[in-house]
TrEMBL record:
<feature type="domain" description="U-box">
    <location>
        <begin position="27"/>
        <end position="101"/>
    </location>
</feature>
<dbReference type="InterPro" id="IPR011989">
    <property type="entry name" value="ARM-like"/>
</dbReference>
<dbReference type="Pfam" id="PF04564">
    <property type="entry name" value="U-box"/>
</dbReference>
<dbReference type="InterPro" id="IPR003613">
    <property type="entry name" value="Ubox_domain"/>
</dbReference>
<dbReference type="InterPro" id="IPR013083">
    <property type="entry name" value="Znf_RING/FYVE/PHD"/>
</dbReference>
<keyword id="KW-0808">Transferase</keyword>
<dbReference type="GO" id="GO:0016567">
    <property type="term" value="P:protein ubiquitination"/>
</dbReference>
<keyword id="KW-0677">Repeat</keyword>
<feature type="repeat" description="ARM">
    <location>
        <begin position="210"/>
        <end position="252"/>
    </location>
</feature>
<comment type="pathway">
    <text>Protein modification; protein ubiquitination.</text>
</comment>
<feature type="compositionally biased region" description="Basic residues">
    <location>
        <begin position="1"/>
        <end position="12"/>
    </location>
</feature>
<dbReference type="InterPro" id="IPR016024">
    <property type="entry name" value="ARM-type_fold"/>
</dbReference>
<dbReference type="InterPro" id="IPR058678">
    <property type="entry name" value="ARM_PUB"/>
</dbReference>
<dbReference type="GO" id="GO:0061630">
    <property type="term" value="F:ubiquitin protein ligase activity"/>
</dbReference>
<feature type="region of interest" description="Disordered">
    <location>
        <begin position="1"/>
        <end position="28"/>
    </location>
</feature>
<keyword id="KW-0833">Ubl conjugation pathway</keyword>
<dbReference type="InterPro" id="IPR000225">
    <property type="entry name" value="Armadillo"/>
</dbReference>
Length: 489
């Protein structure tokens, strides 16, 4: 901790503090630090590849025609720049709680000097380094003891032959993907789709920046077979956790969103699956939301395709785990759409997962109270016609989230007859669900009668009063998604 504190003072020029709260300051989270300037970001922006930088560092790179190679060997794409307001707010909150002065924006001249220094010191990697990079799956460390068993502990002659084959295969596929002949592109995509269908090693070794770049240009092809096979191959590549962040940073999400909006029906199915798969990684959630994936995902909930509907719902669930994305969903009018789906019995289980996340947010809660969510959920519990125990517990969890809506929730719950329904519900379900029901009943019953307080519930229902308490929500359902759910059929 001592050396970390010393670096912190040098980087941000903070004077020594005698306050005991600041004696053991930790370094800022790495996602708060610009990869180019190595300082806390004051004006963070997301670029097309999903990376986040200080704004003037991006401007300097563009003005000097320099594209850096980042520590994780990924290459950013600076074609578009979008303010990352959510991250900026998070950084400022962290500074406040950590007793750190807010960062000041880096001026353009300083940013250009930094980039010039990087540009002058940039060296081409040796052939040996490139070979070593292709071997990393066989000797990388794992964060879990259980996952080590899937990776060999040493390079064998068979592994080397496979890597050499895949390297040769990659070059051949990329050459054909870049061909001017449509039939060669189509053949290469079919080959790529077949190779990456079942095996992990081809998925990892073929997911290179060169192949992703070639694939990106074909995703929005006007030819149905090319568009469908390119997106399907991308789904296969995205199944490996090692590839998810790399794919988003390759700049492939915008054309993927375009396919989800305007593509051929089968390609739209695969596009929804690809976005769902990429959204499983926490590092991708904010970028996917900022790049505009949620409106077409919300629209895809009405698709004629079961696959597109279900994958879109799961993608929205994982994206809505991030506060900034929940805010976007509320502004898009998603609450009304999702509640209508629940009332009509369409994909109730998966839609309820998204509503649970919205009920946990300050923006989502009043929108759901306005949309009649309390009455809807109470009626669902009274019928007790759930497709699974998990869906029932999601309904309870959503009501628990709304119960933090203060007196307005209490009024709506009384109007819906929630006390009788919840009293019955308290007798069934898991202990976690029963505990939530008990807490909701505590809110509904309250202390009004004990204190002799008279409340005009009709006036209260129209007041829009909402409490600002926060809580953590657990739905008790595993929706992480398995490879077998997304794999190319």
């Amino acid at each position: 901790m001592g050396s970390g504190r010393h670096r912190w003072k040098i980087s941000f020029h903070r004077p020594p503090s005698t306050d005991p709260k600041t004696r053991h300051q930790a370094a800022p989270p790495k996602e708060f630090v610009c990869p180019i300037s190595n300082t806390l970001m004051a004006d963070p922006v997301i670029v097309s590849s999903g990376h986040t930088f200080e704004r003037n560092c991006v401007q300097a790179c563009k003005s000097l025609s320099f594209t850096p190679t980042l520590p994780d060997s990924s290459i950013p794409n600076f074609s578009a720049v979008i303010p990352n307001l959510a991250l900026k707010s998070t950084i400022l909150n962290w500074c406040t709680t950590s007793l750190v002065d807010p960062p000041k924006p880096l001026d353009l001249l300083s940013a250009q000097n930094l980039v010039l220094l990087l540009k002058s010191s940039c060296k081409t990697k040796s052939l040996e380094e490139k070979i070593e990079l292709t071997r990393w799956p066989s000797h990388c460390s794992s964060s879990s003891e259980e996952s080590v068993g899937t990776t060999p502990t040493s390079i064998t002659s068979s592994d080397v032959e496979t890597l050499i084959y895949n390297s040769s295969e990659e070059k051949d596929i990329i050459t054909k993907l870049k061909s001017c002949e449509v039939h060669e592109q189509a053949a290469a995509l079919v080959s790529l789709r077949m190779i990456t269908r079942n095996e992990e090693l081809p998925r990892v070794s073929l997911c290179t920046s060169g192949l992703l770049s070639a694939l990106r240009s074909l995703i929005t092809s006007k030819y149905a077979s090319i568009q469908v096979n390119s997106v399907a191959a991308l789904v296969n590549l995205s199944l490996e956790d090692k590839n998810k962040v790399k794919i988003v940073r390759s700049g492939i999400v915008p054309p993927l969103i375009s396919v989800l909006r305007f593509g051929f029906p089968e390609a739209q199915d695969h596009a929804a699956g690809a976005i769902f798969s990429l959204a499983l990684d926490d590092q991708n959630k904010t970028a996917i939301g900022v790049l505009g994936a949620m409106p077409p995902l919300l629209h895809a909930l009405r698709s004629d395709s079961d696959q597109a509907r279900h994958d879109s719902a799961l993608a929205l669930f994982h994206l809505s785990l991030v506060q900034s994305n929940r805010t976007k969903l509320v502004k898009l009018g998603s609450v009304g759409v999702l509640l209508d789906m629940v009332r009509s019995g369409r994909m109730t289980g998966r839609v309820m997962l998204v509503l649970c996340n919205l009920a946990a947010s300050l923006e989502g809660r009043p929108a759901m109270l306005d949309g009649g969510a309390v009455g809807c959920f109470v009626e669902m519990l009274s019928r007790n016609e759930f497709d699974s125990v998990a869906t029932r517990e999601s309904c309870v969890a959503a009501l628990y989230g709304l119960s933090h809506g203060g007196l307005r929730f209490k009024g709506l719950a009384k109007e819906a007859g929630a006390e009788v329904v919840l009293t019955r519900a308290e007798e069934v379900g898991s202990e976690r669900a029963r505990e939530k029901v008990r807490r909701i009943l505590g809110v509904v019953r309250g202390r009004d009668d004990e204190e002799g307080e008279e409340i005009d519930w009709e006036e209260l229902l129209n007041s829009g009063e909402v409490s600002r308490s926060r809580f953590q929500l657990g739905c008790g359902m595993d929706v992480s998604g398995s490879k077998s759910n997304l794999a190319d059929p």
